User: What shape does this take?
Amino acid sequence: MTSRNVFFLLVLSLVALVACDAAGGRLGRYPTDEPTPIPTAPAAAKATYTVARGDITARLSLAGRVSPIVEESLSFTIDGQIGELQVEQFTFVAAGDVLATLDTTQLDAALLAAQAEHDIAAARLTARAAEVERARRRAELQRDMAQLDYDFAVAQAGAAPSAAEQHAIDRLRLALELAQIDVAELDQAIDPALQAEVDAAALRLAQAEADRAAAQIVAPFDGVVLNVQKGAGRGVVAGETVLVLADLNELQASAGARDSELEQLAEDLPATVTAADGRGPALPGVVAHLPYPYGSGGAEESVEGDKTIHVAFDDQDAARAAFELGDRIAIDIVTATREGALWLPPSAVREFSGRRFVVVESDGVQQRVDVVLGIAGDGRVEIVEGLTEGQVVVAP
Assistant: This one.
């Protein structure tokens, strides 16, 4: 074979190899390098709502506890140190029971001193009064004797007394007048300062007695001690709470609320109270008291920072049977009702930058419509303005 033939065979081999590689690339790599396209699924249709008419009830639910209607913080009216505390937390007491007593060592000494001061002042006044009374009696006797002498001289002289007789009569008349002056002067014989001293001592004694009496805290009604804030040996100032006493015969439901919640409430709104765990009966009641300025009480009756609402039970017997003091409860209050109102589900209403609107669909055309909302409850929101019954609204 000649060199020309060999060269020709090599060229043919090279051409064959290139052709095979090209064919392999087209047939072997295509399925992995370029995946088969998947058709896009059609977009799901959005839900729609129809504007309807119906009743709407707005409710406010709060978590609270059972509390007493009558609850009073008890304190001393004077400063001091607690000497004895006769009760503990949850002690039942009767009206008139002594619950706590201050250390009365100084009070007793002050009372004894005031009593002695008063007794001395009263004794001085009594002694002076007795002295004056004796002097008055002597003066009265002297006056009566002068009267007798004068009357006798006039009778003896007759209608035409002599000069000597007239002189004697005149002297006796003057003596009678002097005796009458002595009697009159004794009416002012007691120094007013003595009586003033007695009066001042009596006031100091009364204050000492009042302070001694104020050294006790006495139960104003039958009840149970809910809290003991000061124990024996502790110093207290007048008006500082020592004990909290409650009457368990009258129960109520109480709950804390935010300002935004209080703005929805009003006294006399109906309410329902149930146990927090859902067990037991649902007892009806009414909002009895709201804190200032949401309720009927004035600022002078309010407690700063108080945000507590109070619900009164319609049936106290049922309340006492169902609940105990301090039980956790759920309070459901009907804040407003609308009958035959236009409504939509709250999820149908959209909001952007403070604007509330819905998307209304009509004949396949969608349009944004601003709405004014009213009350909401039970999965419904009231449509006050913007829509009419039967319109179709597209969900967001």
In short: The radius of gyration is 52 Å. The first strand starts at residue 48 and ends at 50. The first helix runs from residue 3 to 28.
